[in-house]
Q: What sequence folds into this?
């Protein structure tokens, strides 16, 4: 393993070197760095030319110029001595500080979308594989092909125009007619019935329950003006925590072992107490305190659930920790939602922005600033998620089907394991192995795709740096962008290989 | 992967095998077994070539058939309506003729009763007929996509085949080049150079896009070659003195055709989206040529006032990409019969 990592790192280094060479010469030969000065005249023009020549080393021939750039990168790798700038852009400003600003906003964009697409895609992919050739399977197949074929910029423009503007208008006065509520209920009922499947009677039952429950919940939310002052509240938190506990237990352990269920509920109780305790703590905070809260909750739940779990200590403790992390997430979401009314007021009653990565000059608490980030993320995340989601669903489905045809699945069924155990423990784990590779590629791809995403949403990140750099024939920012994206691609490839060998013992790294 | 290396011995054991499996499955209804086995025997005596099996599997895939129909329709519409390369089409307006705007350029297409009207897709801000413009853009986008697919297929197959067959230094050299190109995201490398290449015309632009998108196929083909070169039929070809060239092209390549076709199909749908994305960034097709992406980019602020300028080219992009994706899915199912229904 160690030998493999060393070898791959050395090879990756040379690949990056070759790739930067290629990229550098493509960039500097892509146009004339003085093109925008064509119409200008007089002393200003001469001064600009002189300044640019100095900043971009244009008086040096291309090949030594590339080595000068390499030298600048080298300063960042070797500690001490000359300061690390990653070169200068054409105005003579250091590239590194610009990159540091840009990386943050681009990562927010990419990470959230990738994680969401992964979770949704895997869940839907598994369900379609289990219900192969059902109505649900066919609909999802069609939808994912449709999403697969959507140009990102086209989808984004539509989302901006229709979703954001209409949603903002609706949020100003959130009301539905009874007919709309009923229609939404019916749609939700149909979706649930198709997902759950089964015979006619079961589908009808599911449809009725889901439709009524959705319509009722929506009605209550509207009546209580939840969309104006959202949040979970004490009761909501208690119910949600218990729900999370039951869900995780159903998925990971089943209900046959009562003690495990009790342990899960105890963990949810710990989470709820944590919520109560954290109310004053989290009035205005920072990420460190939030992280500490998550860790403390996880550890306490791990212990409590382990004790309650009795004979099934190990399993109960793990589930307890998972539940605690989920409940902490819920606490964070609740906090963000509570910041909504003030932030909405600050945004002039139109809270969902269509462009940009954050509101300019926003002063507020930790939660308001992060909710502002989150609201800016809504549209790009929907667009990116929809497109990546299609890939994940297809691959997960194929992979799960492949695994379900294996002999060991038949063996597992033959020896009488419950369907849940077969699906979760024997099939799902093995089906996820190819998905790790896909995730590595997809993440690097989406990072590169930031070029388009950021252009569409007026996002001020690395993609914008790159596009501006290309248009100005300015290699500094272009190469800085490429350093990050290329390193991510190389690194994720290596991680995928390591993860592969770790998950599948038949594969050895050499 | 190695399923179709020797097409001739398909039919050999199938009769006995089907009988045996049928009987072993149906032990509890033993009386029914002989008759079913008999009918099965009559059916399986008919020999089916590998190509025919693939064709049958493909034509069972309804999505793929619908995709072919849709793609053919779009092809016909685009090339017959405004004509191509000097040959006139049935549509009487040109995409670059400015005219007075009629009813603010709204589309005159009505579905019931069906009539095209004067300007079925409306007119753009300059009064150009948008139907002709969209058709012209569709032609360009289709040509680009197919050239990209072709170029990527040729380069990817050659590189992958040479690397996988010769191993050693050839492989190390070619695969390191592939790694270098893979490291740079396609959009990025394309955006860096597309601006210049696009000015040279759509054909050089398309060839260039092909040159940057071949890497995935090269890796897949290499993988296939690595396993196939160790098979007995390659060894026997070597032993009778076949040249490397002959072994690669006559013996191994036909067995990798599935991977190549499927991957090329997906490269074509990817190329449509890549071309439109680059044109959207202003780095793609330039005037006086037009493409679907460029049409959207030119009218991107028009969504609120003239939504049809934005929606029509988008609909055609989706139509083409969707059709090609479905065809690719059908081809994958046809070439890779492993993914059949789960038996529970």
A:
């Amino acid at each position: 393993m160690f030998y493999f990592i060393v070898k791959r790192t050395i090879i990756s280094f040379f690949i990056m070197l070759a790739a930067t060479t290629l990229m550098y010469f493509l960039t500097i030969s892509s146009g004339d760095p003085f093109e925008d000065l064509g119409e200008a005249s007089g002393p200003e023009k001469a001064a600009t030319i002189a300044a640019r020549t100095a900043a971009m080393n244009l008086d040096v021939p291309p090949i030594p110029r590339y080595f000068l750039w390499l030298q600048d990168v080298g300063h960042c790798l070797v500690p001490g001595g000359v300061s690390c700038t990653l070169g200068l852009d054409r105005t003579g400003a250091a590239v590194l500080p610009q990159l540091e600003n840009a990386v943050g906003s681009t990562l927010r964009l990419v990470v959230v979308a990738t994680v969401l697409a992964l979770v949704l895609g895997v869940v839907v992919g598994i369900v379609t594989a289990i219900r192969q050739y059902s109505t649900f399977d066919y609909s999802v197949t069609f939808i994912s092909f449709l999403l697969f074929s959507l140009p990102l910029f086209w989808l984004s423009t539509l989302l901006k125009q229709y979703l954001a503007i209409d949603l903002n208008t609706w949020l100003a006065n959130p009301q539905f007619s009874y007919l709309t509520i009923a229609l939404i209920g019916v749609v939700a009922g149909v979706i649930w019935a198709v997902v759950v499947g089964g015979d006619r009677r079961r589908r009808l039952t599911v449809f009725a329950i889901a439709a009524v429950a959705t319509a009722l919940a929506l009605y209550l939310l509207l009546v209580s003006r939840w969309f104006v002052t959202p949040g979970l509240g004490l009761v909501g938190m208690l119910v949600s925590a218990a729900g999370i506990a039951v869900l995780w237990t159903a998925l990971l352990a089943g209900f046959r072992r009562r003690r495990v269920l009790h342990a899960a509920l105890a963990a949810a109780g710990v989470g709820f107490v944590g919520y109560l305790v954290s109310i004053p703590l989290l009035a205005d905070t920072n990420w460190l305190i939030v992280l500490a809260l998550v860790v403390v909750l996880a550890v306490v739940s791990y212990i409590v659930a382990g004790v309650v779990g009795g004979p099934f200590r190990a399993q109960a403790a793990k589930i307890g920790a998972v539940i605690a992390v989920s409940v902490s997430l819920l606490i964070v979401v609740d906090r963000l939602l509570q910041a909504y009314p003030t932030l909405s007021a600050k945004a002039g009653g139109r809270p969902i922005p269509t462009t940009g990565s954050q509101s300019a000059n926003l002063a507020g608490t930790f939660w308001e600033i992060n909710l502002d980030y989150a609201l800016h993320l809504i549209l790009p995340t929907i667009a990116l998620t929809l497109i990546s989601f299609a890939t994940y669903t297809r691959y997960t489905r194929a992979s799960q089907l492949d695994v379900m045809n294996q002999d060991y699945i038949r063996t597992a069924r033959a020896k009488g394991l419950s369907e849940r155990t077969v699906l979760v423990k024997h099939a799902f784990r093995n089906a996820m192995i190819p998905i790790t590779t896909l995730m590595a590629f997809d993440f690097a791809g989406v990072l590169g795709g930031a070029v388009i995403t950021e252009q569409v949403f007026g996002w001020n990140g690395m993609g914008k740096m790159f596009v501006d750099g290309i248009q100005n024939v300015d290699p500094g920012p272009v190469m800085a962008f490429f350093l990050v994206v290329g390193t991510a691609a190389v690194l994720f490839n290596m991680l995928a290989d390591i993860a592969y060998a770790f998950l599948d013992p038949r594969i050895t790294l050499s | 992967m190695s399923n179709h290396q020797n097409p001739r011995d398909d039919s050999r054991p199938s009769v006995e095998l089907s009988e045996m499996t049928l009987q072993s499955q149906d032990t509890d209804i033993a009386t029914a077994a002989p008759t079913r086995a008999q009918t099965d025997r009559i059916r399986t005596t008919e020999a089916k070539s590998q190509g025919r099996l693939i064709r049958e599997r493909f034509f069972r895939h309804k999505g793929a058939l619908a995709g072919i129909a849709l793609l053919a329709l779009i092809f016909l519409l685009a090339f017959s309506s405004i004509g191509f390369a000097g040959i006139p089409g049935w549509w009487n307006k040109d995409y670059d003729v400015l005219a007075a705007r009629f009813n603010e350029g709204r589309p005159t297409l009505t579905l019931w009763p069906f009539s095209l009207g004067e300007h079925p897709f409306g007119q753009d801000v300059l009064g150009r007929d948008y139907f002709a413009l969209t058709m012209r853009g569709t032609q360009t986008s289709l040509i680009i996509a197919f050239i990209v697919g072709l170029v990527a297929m040729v380069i990817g197959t050659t590189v992958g085949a040479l690397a996988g067959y010769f191993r050693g230094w050839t492989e190390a050299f070619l695969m390191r080049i592939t790694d270098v190109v893979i490291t740079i995201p396609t959009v990025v490398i394309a955006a860096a150079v597309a601006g210049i290449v696009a000015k040279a015309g759509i054909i050089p632009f398309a060839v260039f896009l092909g040159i940057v998108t071949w890497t995935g196929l090269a890796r897949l083909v290499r993988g296939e070659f690595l396993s196939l070169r160790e098979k007995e039929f390659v060894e026997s070809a070597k032993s009778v003195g076949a040249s490397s060239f002959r072994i690669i092209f006559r013996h191994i390549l036909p067995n990798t055709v599935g991977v190549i076709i499927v991957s090329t199909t997906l490269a074509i749908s990817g190329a449509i989206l890549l071309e439109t994305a680059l044109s959207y960034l202003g780095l793609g097709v330039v005037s006086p040529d037009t493409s679907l992406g460029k049409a959207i980019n030119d009218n991107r602020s028009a969504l609120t006032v003239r939504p049809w300028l934005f929606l029509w080219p988008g609909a055609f992009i989706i139509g083409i990409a969707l059709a090609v994706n479905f065809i690719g899915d059908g081809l994958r199912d046809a070439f890779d019969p492993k993914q059949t229904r789960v038996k529970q």
Confidence is low (pLDDT under 50) at residues 1-33, 340-344 of chain B. The longest helix of chain B spans residues 130-166. The two ends of chain B are 25 Å apart (CA to CA).
